[in-house]
Amino acid sequence: MDETLTDPRDEPLPESLSARDRFDKIHDDMRSRICLLEYPPGMKLSETELATEFGISRTPLRRVLARLEDEGLVTSVHGVGTMVTTMDMAELAQVYRLRKELVLLQTSLDTVPPSPALIARVEQLLGRAEALKSAPSAKEFSMLDRDMFLTLLDLTANAPLRLMSERLYFRTARIWLQQVTASQIDLMQEIEIYAGEVQDILDALKLGDLDAIGHIRRGHISLSFARMQK
């Protein structure tokens, strides 16, 4: 699978981007690296190296780090520096329980009818899920799930709900990848299950049945966490 199709993080920042857009892009890049374990738990982040890499001063970089800290992905320790947070299973269980309820709100509160463009995006995601069956990759799977989450988040226009859902998703996304890397989860089984769920969601989208989508996703979160605990 061509990773450049799904993970454009290596592209240079266009000069035409506004300061806000550049901030968001750097934040998204760093968040993805944390969730994909490129920055593993406990890793110390060098402000100097990051500022050089992204071509910015340390002041805007510190704003990015502050946002990541607010999201629970990094922590700043006086006299030590900024480090990627570790993951606590007890806290994870609480977050998963909350996410199960939020997915139902995402398809019932200030809903947005699925557009042909959104349906087309899910069709592409289904193609990626099917392709993983013959070329399994934990990293590609994680990026697929991220893109699926962000796509379906467009079914609600409720800004506070979107913000909370996004923060909680990225707070837990790396747990699954860490367990797959440690061979504690059967990757092929997960891919097979996920492809079936994407197909079910696509069918529901074409029917305009948002309620069904919410319950499919709630079941996915519940069963996924149960498999992780097992």
Characteristic terms for this protein:
three-stranded antiparallel beta sheet; Four Helix Bundle (Hemerythrin (Met), subunit A); disordered N terminus; Arc Repressor Mutant, subunit A; mainly alpha; 230 residues; 2 domains
Can you describe what's shown?
It is globular, with a radius of gyration of 18 Å. The protein has two domains: 8-84, Arc Repressor Mutant, subunit A; 89-229, Four Helix Bundle (Hemerythrin (Met), subunit A) (Up-down Bundle), CATH 1.20.120.530. Helix 1 (19-35) runs parallel beside helix 7, helix 5 runs antiparallel to helix 8 (187-207) and helix 8 (187-207) packs antiparallel against helix 9. By secondary structure, the chain is mainly alpha-helical. Strand 2 (74-77) and strand 3 (81-84) form a beta hairpin. The protein is 66% helix and 4% strand. Strands 1-3-2 form a three-stranded antiparallel β-sheet.
Briefly, what is this?
66% of the residues lie in helices and 4% in strands. The protein is mainly α. The protein folds into 2 domains: 8-84, Winged helix-like DNA-binding domain superfamily/Winged helix DNA-binding domain (Arc Repressor Mutant, subunit A, Orthogonal Bundle), CATH 1.10.10; 89-229, Up-down Bundle (Four Helix Bundle (Hemerythrin (Met), subunit A)), CATH 1.20.120.
Radius of gyration: 18 Å
Chain-averaged pLDDT: 90
Q: CATH-wise, what's the superfamily of the largest domain?
A: GntR ligand-binding domain-like
Uncertain runs: 1-10
Order of helical and strand elements: HEHHEEHHHHHH
Total strands: 3
Structural class by secondary-structure content:
mainly alpha
Approximately what portion of the residues adopt beta-strand conformation? under 5%
Distance between the termini: 30 Å
CATH class of the largest domain, please? Mainly Alpha
CATH architecture of the largest domain: Up-down Bundle
Question: Judging from the principal axes of the Cα atoms, what is the shape?
Answer: globular
Number of distinct helices:
9
